């Protein structure tokens, strides 16, 4: 009897789960499997179908292939199509394998015991489910990678002799988001931004670089709080800045995460520190009923131990063998979706970016790229990136309000946080790092050079303490390079007209030149 008995793969259509196709076509790959098996999973960002014409049609959501690409209308056909053309979607595969059961997968492998796709399906079933199929070890077929490295980022991997495969998955069963190799990411990688950063600071004197680094560190700390809509006291900003400056020096584990949360929160009298022991969500409450209005629902607290262990394993393993910025995006955005704490998640999420980049030696020694400042400047794009997954996830979570006006998740959602497509997140983070290297770092260095030149000229005109020169500079900066009548009448009334003219000329020569 066919393993697809009772499973119906539908024909041509124009709409699938509210997504309109560019033309009438038949679902293929993951879309067909989700439809046929009624899987409750976040839809892949891009779906495939088979059209009636001998041309490929593609938009942001759909890839319509030609009739010659059509798979056989069964589990094996659509699974093979998915692995060949759509890459790995581990959330879909986990849910699919629960629906098919083991016998259907055994049939696929027995029909094609040396086939590379059959062996990959076999491996993925056992890796994702943790159960061993009633199959002898593979005896034939060349070794191929589980993840196609031309489709998605992977590690070098290690051999899995049972399947005659190389397991190059960039994570563990507890946490393994994936990133597609897009043209945009390939362009970013080709820029070699780490080398660009080293070139920017190559001729910067050590004392000037130290001042630049200190400013950028403070800027990042202040921006990270601003993203959360907070304006904490200066000492908290500086304390968090010092923590960011030490990122990458200590291994990531549960105790380190708890230590960092304590630093970022500061006053914990009204906040419960530590990992959550109840539900969590991001959003608002109804003003009248106080009922939750979630934009994002965090991972169940029951899943936090395995998810946290998975993130730690990723940081200590796979993240050290893949592109640093891609790895930072996977870890940081995975953390913020999981939201393991009651408070402090957003700032810790951005800290993890610094942690990975510093640990991998991506930034020059002593320099922290103000990634949070770049994010803050692109806050709408940042939110869009966060929603690229959370908006697809939210409708799949069954929940009810608690007596404390929190949420209690009713269905098993753990795999949705273990496995997601982090491609938009990696592209966004790369654009932020590029900005900090090509704009913020040289701009701040040039500013300090110019300021030092300005201060030198002022000291040649009039004796003035450093703090008074700073005040003078701020007045000039606020008034387009001239001293206001108020400043000349009060703070700097002792200056002569000639001195004032020379000071304004010094500002124009040093600070108003393009750089």
From TrEMBL:
Keywords: ATP-binding, Nucleotide-binding, Plasmid. GO terms for molecular function: ATP binding. It comes from the Bacteria. It holds the Pfam family Fic. InterPro entries: Fido (IPR003812), Fido-like_dom_sf (IPR036597), Fido_containing (IPR040198). PROSITE patterns: FIDO (PS51459). Residues 252-402 form the Fido domain. ATP binds at residues 343-350. The active site is at 339. SUPFAM superfamilies: Fic-like. This is Cell filamentation protein Fic.
